[in-house]
Amino acid sequence: MKNLLIGLLIIGLTNLSYSQNSFRELETTKDLRIKQSISTELKSVSLLNAPYLEKVQNDVKPSNIMQLELMAFKYNIKKLINPINRPQLLVVKFSWSTNWLIAKYDHNGKILSTHEEFKDFKLPNHILKSISLNHPNWSITTNTYKVSYNSISGVKMGYIVVIRKGNQKKKIHFDSNTKYPTKASVITNNNLK
Q: Which Gene3D superfamilies does UniProt cross-reference here (predicted)?
C-alpha cells in the first residue's frame, strides 16, 4: 500500500511539473512559434511578393507586426477580383487595433508600395538600452514604428519614441538599423500632439 501511494504521488507530481513547464514554455516562446509558423506559411505562398517580405521583416520585430505584414504579403487579388474587372492599381488597408498597413498592388497582385504604422508595442532591446543609457530616469510614454516600402526605391523603417521626465517631454527618432538616436527634439505644449 505504501509503495502504491508513493508511486501515485510521483506520477501526480511528474504530470504537474510537466504541465507547468509546458505553460511557461508556451509563454516564453510565443513570438518564436508565431515566427516559425510564418516562415512555414511562406513556403506555400507565391513568391511574387517575396522581395517585400525580405526587406520589411527582421528578428526584432514583434509578432503582431509580422502577422499584419504577412497578411499583405498573402493577399491575392486574383482570387478576389475577376480579371475583367480588375483595376490596374488596387489599394488595400489592413488594420489591427491602432496598427495599420496600406498596400498598393498592381493588376497581377504584386505589392508596389506600403505605408505602415504601428503604435505602442514592445520596443527592441537595443532601443530600450539606448534610451535608458542616454536618458536615465525618463519614462517612455508612447512609441511608433513606421515603415515605407517601395518596390523600386526600397524600404525606410524607423521608430519614434516619446519620453517624459516630470513636465518635460522629448521625441526621439531611431533608424531601424542603428541603436543610437538619429534625431531628438524637445516637445513643448505648442507642438505636442
A: 3.10.450.360
